[in-house]
Design brief:
By secondary structure, this protein is mainly alpha-helical. It folds into two domains: 8-64, no CATH class; 68-121, no CATH class. Helices cover 67% and strands 0% of the residues. It contains six helices and no strands.
Length: 121
């Protein structure tokens, strides 16, 4: 059996575009895992060093070095509120409340898709 794929002008329905996107995500995840694996094997991190490591990852994905993690998180939460997402969805995505952690741990581990989808648009 042979399957041939053709490029479609609409990216949302182009299978080649999907594969390239998936491949790019996997490569970036592998790079981050490799980076943190090497870092954690060498030493244990203090709060300051952990913060620096997080900023390295943030800068590698294109976020300005001046931005803090909390600012990025706040902006994402405000964006979701403006897109009429419920508090429960935002809490589950942001890991803000303890009850959301319990629900995520016990019931819906991967219920962050709608928020991720909205943030990517």
């Amino acid at each position: 059996m042979q399957i041939s794929l053709k490029i479609v002008s609409i990216k949302a329905i182009c299978p080649i575009e999907w594969f390239e996107t998936w491949n790019g995500r996997e490569k970036s995840k592998q790079q981050i895992r490799t980076y943190f694996g090497k870092t954690l094997k060498k030493r244990s991190l203090t709060r300051e060093k952990c913060s620096k490591e997080v900023h390295v990852v943030m800068s590698s994905v294109g976020i300005d070095e001046k931005q803090s993690v909390t600012i990025v998180r706040k902006v994402a939460i405000f964006a979701m509120q403006n897109k009429n997402k419920t508090k429960i969805e935002i809490d589950r995505w942001s890991r803000y409340s303890e009850s959301a952690d319990k629900v995520r741990y016990n019931y819906d581990v991967n219920n962050n898709d709608s928020i991720r989808k909205e943030l990517s648009e």
